[in-house]
Amino acid sequence: MFPTNVGILRKWTNYVYGWQQRYFEVENGSLLYYKSENEKIFGSRGSITIRCVWELFWEEGEMKMYKRNLEIDGLVQDPLKATHLVKVHKRVWPTAQRESLFWSHTRRFNEHRDADALDLFLVCNHSCVRPDVPLKQSSNVRVGLTVAMICQTKPVEDLTRNDVSCRIIYVSRVDPGGWVPVAGLRMIYKREYPKFLRGFTEYVVKNTRSTPLIL
């Protein structure tokens, strides 16, 4: 036996009147529709035979469960079906070893430098994927990143190494490779960002200490 249901549906009529509301009833596997409930006495405007009708009987968030009243060879059947949307997060332990693979590009933009600066350089680093460069260890997590730095040099007559200074504007967007708790993420960037800038500064000083100035 099919359930009896009533309601309102929108039916396409013609190009003059477009979509119009129609009253309908579902009974014994047939959908009967009328211009309005009061016009039932004049008979239906049309009918549609329905088979395998599923009825929603439980819903919670994205989970929906349907039932269907069905009788086969005199035996009552109670088939059920469910639909559920699941969002999967790859949880990554905050202390897991990270590594990155990225390209770096440097470009000079003196036309945008500040009035008291000698020059302006833009440095951009962006992560990439290469099948010929695997992870050093299978347990590591490959980090996705986009980093941009703007560096300006202070102008001084007869510059020496002691006179050279740079302004650095550091911007980064980092994908940790999975879901990380907010508290853990904050703990990481408060520790790692200063660590990176210190390491970057030490690297520059170490590799340029004994070289002549080229500005």
UniProtKB/TrEMBL annotation:
Short name of one Pfam family: START
Question: Which InterPro entries does the record associate with it?
Answer: PH-like_dom_sf, START-like_dom_sf, START_lipid-bd_dom, START_lipid_transfer
**GO CC annotation, single:** cytoplasm
Which residues are in the START domain?
Answer: 58-205
Entries under Gene3D superfamilies matching the protein: 3.30.530.20, Pleckstrin-homology domain (PH domain)/Phosphotyrosine-binding domain (PTB)
Tell me the GO molecular function terms.
lipid binding
Question: Which GO BP terms, alphabetically?
Answer: ER to Golgi ceramide transport
PANTHER family, A to Z: CERAMIDE TRANSFER PROTEIN, PHOSPHATIDYLCHOLINE TRANSFER PROTEIN
Protein's name according to its UniProt entry: START domain-containing protein
Source organism per entry reads Dracunculus medinensis (Guinea worm)
